[in-house]
Amino acid sequence: MKHPSGQCVFCGGGRLTKEHIWSDWIRDFVNTNSHVQTSQSSLHNLAGRIALTHENSETRMGAMHQRKVRIVCRRCNNGWMSACVAAAKPVAKQIISGGLINISPKEQESLATWIAIMHSMAEYIDTESLVVSASERSQIMATKLPPNSFVIHIGRYSGVGWRPMDYRHTALTEAIPPPLPGPSALRLTDNKIGIATGVIGSLAFHVASSTHAPFLSRFNNACLPSNMERIWPLRNRPIDWGTVAVLSDLDLGGIHGRFADLTRS
Description:
28% of the residues lie in helices and 32% in strands. It is of the alpha+beta class.
């Protein structure tokens, strides 16, 4: 659901500013002159038939971390959002740089919140594939945590195809076909799921969110490689990053391919 123009997507206030999707301090660790961002959405019914597909892929000159959108007010950006980013920055910097550290549950929580904020803003790269709802964004603002409808994983990226930064988003909306053959329109439901996979240096992250819990269990669990660590919902145990198996380009590339295959099964 698209947010009313001119209103902050988190608090609903005005006086929007053009803000970075990705934390600007990333420039100290990632150097890039161009990037490709892919966003896809499709309509899907319970029988598994693809009814409609929308795809958007763009290449932009300039560093990916410099991408901005005008969807957040200055008060949110300089207030609670800034505090959440600052909390995640120390551990995020170490992982992005390839450090092999022990990640505490509190650090995992901070990372998950930072990723949830970035993902909620990055969806606006292609407004046709929005999944995160206004109530979920309000929950992030109120709790300074990801919503319960988010599942977030991270991994140690060792490939080259997604470096130094990349972000790929796929969204599905359930569509019920007309009861009789003919020109009748498909009926869209409120059931949606979005998955996003990104890389920043050596950090790979994956976010799945849905307005319909069965969609999450059906799609997300079957798509992820086994060597990604879940950080939300929190497991309340430390992660020894040095013992986590690395992710290849094949591992990451297969996520969205398997997701598309499941919509046809």
